[in-house]
Amino acid sequence: MTDDISLSIADHLTPGDLQRIEALLPQLSRTAGFDSERMLALIDSPNADLFLARESGRILGMATLTTAPLVSGWHATIEDVVVVEDARGRGIARLLLEAIIDETGRRGIPTLDLTSRPSRESALRLYESVGFVRRDTNVLRFAPRSD
User: Which residues cross the membrane (predicted)?
Assistant: First the structure.
């Protein structure tokens, strides 16, 4: 089912790519706003890679790998995994995850993290099926109040 899907790490984005990503973003987050400058900065960042899944040039899914050197070693995280609604169930998210896992292995990064809301049960099953293990931890977020 995924034979005609091509995966790549984006090194540039065309205006058409930016339009497809903008259309895909609401399926990832209801609150995130699209910013083409931010997308171009992501592509230029040495610590982030945007993985794209395409079929006949059309972006069907994406995921971001971020890496950072820390005192304790290299840290890698998967962010923003999303597949266009009409292409879900075809194994595209799995292909993206496997490509990122392979890339972190190639880079010698020993661990890879991701987070997901507990309500995203099918996503959690997918993550576990490719080898992710739930950890007994809490994710905390600081958001300054705008008074």
Answer: none
